[in-house]
Amino acid sequence: MSPLTQSAHQVLSILKKDLLIEWRARTRVLSLLCFTAIILLLFSFAVGPDTATLRRHCGGYLWLSLLFCSTAMLSRSLRIEEESGAMDSLLLAPISPIWIFLGKATANAIELFIIGLMTLPICFALCDVAIADSAWRLLVIIALGSAGLAAPGTLFATITERIQGQVLLMPLLLFPLVVPMLLAAVKSTSLILTGDLMDEGGDWLTLLVFFNAMYWPLCGVLFERVVEV
Amino acid sequence: MKWFHISAVMGVSLLCIGHGLGLFVAPPEAMMGDVGRILYVHVPTAWVALVVYLISFGAAVGSLWFGRLTWDATVRASVEVGVVLTALLVFQGSVWARPTWGVWWAWDPRLTTTAIMMITYVAILIMRNAIQDSPRRLVITAVATIVAFVDVPIVYFSVKWWKSLHQDHSSPDTVSDPMILPLRLAAIGMLLLALGLIGARRKTELDRLNQEVDPASLPEPIEALSVPGESE
Question: Which uninterrupted H or E stretch holds A26?
Answer without folding.
Answer: helix A26-47
